[in-house]
Amino acid sequence: MQFYLDAFRTGDPELLPPNPDPAMLADTDALPDEVDVLIVGCGPAGLTLAAQLSRFPAIRTRIVEQKDGPLMFGQADGIACRSMEMFQAFAMRERVEREAYWVNETAFWKPSAERPGEIVRSGLIQDVEDGLAPYPHVIINQARVHQFFLDIMARAPNRLIPNYHRRFAGLEIGADAVTARIERLDDAHEGEIETVRARYVVGADGARSSVREALGFRLVGDAANQAWGVMDVLAVTDFPDIRKKCVIQSEREGNVLVIPREGGYMLRIYVEMDKLAGNERVTDRAIGLDDIVRAAERIFRPYTFEAKSVSWWSVYEVGQRITDHFDDASPTQGARDPRVFIMGDACHTHSAKAGQGLNVSVMDAFNLGWKLAAVLDGRAPAALLSTYSAERRAIAQTLIDFDREWAAMMAAPLKSPAVPHGVDPAELQAYFVRHGRYTAGVATRYARSALTGGTEHQALAKGFEIGTRFHSAPVVRLADAKAIELIETMEADGRFRLIAFADRGDPAARGSKIRDFCEFVAETLAPRFTPRGRDIDAMFDLRAVFQQGHRDLDLRAMPAPLRPAKGPLGLTDYEKMFCPHFKSGVDIFDLRGVDRERGALVVVRPDQYVAHVLPLDAHAELAAFFAGFLIPVAA
């Protein structure tokens, strides 16, 4: 991280100076009459969006929640590799890694052929393939993830703190704003209605979303008519794989998913319970904690399982549902830009078996956050916001389709001559391996659009596939020889990254491709789109990766735009240039298939997805790409 750009300050560098305008501070109990963004719901999606918008002092953001305080127990716990990359952008990845359980292997268990009623291990596999991501798949209490986001918000310039005891009570959509009604639930003000005029409202209020209901949208889909129990438990057991993620198929007692939790002792266990009738809901069955524990004991045989303490448990029904629209600008309402959005469980619900709920939800927010910031900052037209629903609904549909298939396999009976439609343990394991990239969160691919370029030049950087997340690799920073993952430079600050991979020539030579490109960015591209008075890299974060080793280059001879003067003191930013990490035996040019003769430009969106791959000399094409969705500054 970089700090002290304007002056030295003692104390925690992550505690940013407060906004000098008291009216912008968001740590008050009363809601203001007007805001830029009103977020409803303090789940993972809502807090991700709030944390991102809190980075922008000029944007007035408020987040309301009907509960009386932060989440304490239960709910999601699996953090995919891709989400860890996003957490890195928020500078919270190391906190998660330090506390979390790391999923290294997954064990598969099946019924014993020799001992009826008992289980035996059928397979043991690496959880995530080598090289897929720089960070691990981990397990941590969702409440801790919430707290990390809350800490970021509280340290931001506007000191954003949620307003609890607030229930969303309705909205009216106007031509230039949305009027939201918020009912207070706290004892001192119970029943009082606050009216907030917001430029944008975002519903992140869960599967029973009041914001979605106010828009007249429904979750459409079906239920699997299968009840599952889940518990966070401290248990004594002789089951040998209890500290590994496990998928267990029993002969007649149902299936179990074991997820070791952080701390070394706790477990989360999903237990298959009763099949439901077509018109029956899980609430119609009186399934209690004892039923879940007894079912787990039967499935673990011949091993013992003794639940000593259960901190949280629930019973739920598997179902897959999705809304048709993720914003209020549906085609039936005519052509206009959206003002109300829904995210996370408010627009897609599914089972917990693949651990995708939290992960897809935070990506909804990461997609929308930078777009809202760009529009509210005047850097992009409001039409940009329509791309949120266009991009994320397609991803949600893929999730629903995958979850329907995976949940059905998890609940299917064991395949046998008497049950030919069942699932063989080998099939289940093979399916898990085959979809490993999806469950790691790295299979998302955005279709070609104004934000995602064509593939005409993809061969210049084969490993940075357009429309997919930026696949990081290790590099060495030229200025100080520090080895880092390149994705560590991509913060959640709303900027586009221009990663210029140099060709084989001398980068210091006058007329070199890399020098000409850097000068084009500094003299033409950045001035065209960067608001006056801001640093040269406020819109486009230009960085270069050279082919030479870091000891073979003279920092002072590199193109001047890679050593920009920044801040009120005109300090030099020395962290823009990188070289291959030869000591690790990995060269990013080889690892990601970058053309050594021609070099390549990789354009990365603020949400870490590759927007385009272009030749270094495609100056006009790059300018035209950004002109398609950004607003040039006034002459």
From TrEMBL:
Pfam families membership: FAD_binding_3, Phe_hydrox_dim
Protein species of origin: Roseiarcus fermentans
Domain Phenol hydroxylase-like C-terminal dimerisation: 445-632
Molecular function in Gene Ontology: FAD binding; oxidoreductase activity, acting on paired donors, with incorporation or reduction of molecular oxygen, NAD(P)H as one donor, and incorporation of one atom of oxygen
Family annotation (CDD domains): PHOX_C (cd02979)
Record domain FAD-binding: where: 34-402
Cofactor(s) recorded in Swiss-Prot or TrEMBL: FAD
Keyword set, alphabetical order: FAD, Flavoprotein, Monooxygenase, Oxidoreductase
Family of this protein: Belongs to the PheA/TfdB FAD monooxygenase family.
Entry protein name: Phenol 2-monooxygenase
InterPro entries assigned: FAD-bd, FAD/NAD-bd_sf, Phe_hydrox_C_dim_dom, PHOX_C_sf, RIFMO-like, Thioredoxin-like_sf
